[in-house]
Amino acid sequence: MPNALTLFKANTVISDTWLQAFDARTVAVQGNLVIMTPNMHFVPEFHHFDAEAYDDTFCHAACIPRKESFPCPHPLHWAWFTPTPDDLKPIPGNSFPVGTLASDKVDGLQSLFKLAEQQLRDYRKVHPDRGQVIYGRLLSLRHAVARLKSHPLTFRDLLIFITDAQRLFLDIYSYFDWTLIAQPLTTSGLRHNVRGEWMGAFVQSSDVCEKLFCAGVPVWYVRASAYIPPSMAVVEPVLLTRPDHIIISMYAEGRKVRPFEVIHRGPGGRDHHVHIRCLYAGTTHLDPEAAIPQPSSSSNPSAKVSSLGKAPSRQKSKPKHQPYSIEARPARPALSGESRNKWQDPDTPYLPLLNLHWEAAMKIAIKDQSRIHTPYVIDQGYRFPEPALLIGPKLAERLQVYLVNWLACRALWVGRVDHDPPRTYPTPQLWRDFLGSVPSAQPQSHREKDPDRKGLTATEKRKQVMWELFGDDVLESQGDVFSPDGVVEFRGEQFSVASLTNPSALLAQKVTWELFELGFRYELRDLDRHLAQRQWRDDPAGREQLLHGIFPGDAGLVMWSEPFPSEHYGLWDNTLQGCLPYVENFRRLLCDWDGVLPLLVTPLTLDNFTDTKSWEVKRVVTAFYVQTFFDHFGRPPIIPHSLPMQS
Questions:
Q1: Taking every pair of C-alpha atoms in the chain, what is the biggest distance, in angstroms?
Q2: Position 487 pLDDT exceeds 50
Q3: What is the DSSP string of 24-61?
């Protein structure tokens, strides 16, 4: 097959300063396409290299910095940092392959956030009415770094979220380079020196080629060979430069191959830009063409392939949980394993006391089945084990097993619910089957050789239940979550399994208090995603920020590793000034739901937030939430409880 070396003659006499936008400093051939550049010394392979096809909506992508231009120890080198398994610090007392990112790596990614934050601050000093889109991406970057700092993750998830944080930073950084440096030069009419530290872009328009050339942006002009003028000056014909740093092998953990999902397949351009700007986990089912219409033109050679940008429908990918989708609704209103009255707590010393406002809201809720919105649109399953289920066993040894099983899998499940929830949440019966499982008493090999056994062994039943809950994150083990001689951890404290034979009421209250809190947070998230779909669609980063603003801390909805609180905080802070911002955010969130009460329409400020106002607003928000939840879930919500007494 002919290449540029045989089709074009080099003319080394021509100086780079003489070249115009449609001359070739270097030129290469790819199939029936000729790719030339007036300002770079190499030609990358079209559609398969770092440079992206230019699109007006994402024009700043041409200014993404090159990795080679910012090696370590340059501050920007963190934008291309690739973690190793050693960077995942395991969680003590945990039987699953889950951990947190090493603190020095978190600090490196945090430095990228601080740099982007300073860039936005400086930009808004000059342009106070601009940069709102970038502010949303900055919020997403802050949450991405906070997730890596404090969320429990598998190594596979760690790779995904580090990549997402780096992509967000590069998007922000390139936006400012384009807006402040490149874009003003595109209309100057003068040629400027090329900035080789930018990634550049492929173009198929002569106007865009000339514009980027004048601005000093690396540019590669792609044309069919039939449209190459004989007068085009060529300094050097070259062979295509192909990437040597892209990993194309299947991702594997041990002996298990776990390939990542396909985000995009096909030519570059707008479709590709849209897909790669979605969070990797849970977004591959979206069709970006529904959000950003594709221009159609018979004269555009790429028009026929624009629909190929998304992964083909025949590609089988991991089914993603959609808590507000029709597919997620249960087949019947009642969940297996339900029997007791769930509108009130059982009488036990192992549960913390109910908050007065929430207790009143549960009592006055209208429990008429005719209020329930059917068919069910939101998954009714429990995001976390019901706290009452955890302390349900009457025998001390069974209570120990339930408690230890939960503490052993707690970190993994918290991470799963936050960023990669199952397609349908577990029923109370599935939680009971898992929490009640006990370690095996004999080695796996001995049981497998028993020719007379019938049906599943206890170990096989445990492994089946674990697989239903944790999927590919189950270890290649005998199906045991903990060892009788091992330890488990809770909020920085380690407990031997043996010491939990008769757990203290205080420890049980702390564990169940956290379950109440986690259950409330994630049920609130799923209900809001259903009732405020327009807000999540129009400003997902802003809506997520509002949701997270209801709770203290920088970890979003996640809570698992920080020291156990010693006093009421957040919504239930003992001072008006302390609880005001959280109550106000909760009020703002509920105002976008149908049927919101008039009392919640007025913003809360330091001037109008009195003791009386605080009591009234908290009474109304709790009652409104409980009733709305029942109307859509068909069951009582998991609600926050008072902090356990330390005495």
A1: 92
A2: yes
A3: EEEEEEETTEEEEESS-S--BPTTSSSSEE--GGGGGG
Whether the Cβ atoms of residue 508 and residue 491 lie closer than 8 Å to each other = no
Contacts of 300 (CB under 8 A, 6+ apart): none
Which one, of 320, 317, 318, lies nearest residue 328 by Cα? Answer: 320
Name the 3-class secondary structure at 224. strand
Closest CA to 393 of 502, 466, 265, 273: 502
Written as six digits, the tokens of 523 are 């049920």
Q: What are phi and psi of 499, to 5 degrees?
A: -70, -15
Report the distance separating Cα 148 and Cα 141, nearest Å. Answer: 11
The span from the CA of 306 to the CA of 298, in Å, is: 12
Q: What's the token pair of residue 577? A: 């000034």
| Lowest-pLDDT choice from 241-245, 371-375, 617-621 | 241-245
Buried b (16+ CB within 10 A) or exposed e, 512-551: bbbbbbbbbbbbbbbbbbbbbeebbeeebbbbbbbbbebb
Q: Which element (helix H / strand E) includes 111? A: helix 103-126
Four-point Cα dihedral 530, 536, 541, 546, nearest 10:
-60
24, pLDDT greater than 50: yes
Q: φ and ψ at 578, to 5 degrees?
A: -70, -35
How far apart are alpha carbons 474 and 471 in whole angstroms?
A: 6
Interior CA angle at 292 toward 287 and 294, to 5°?
Answer: 95
Q: Which two tokens stand for residue 629?
A: 């939840």
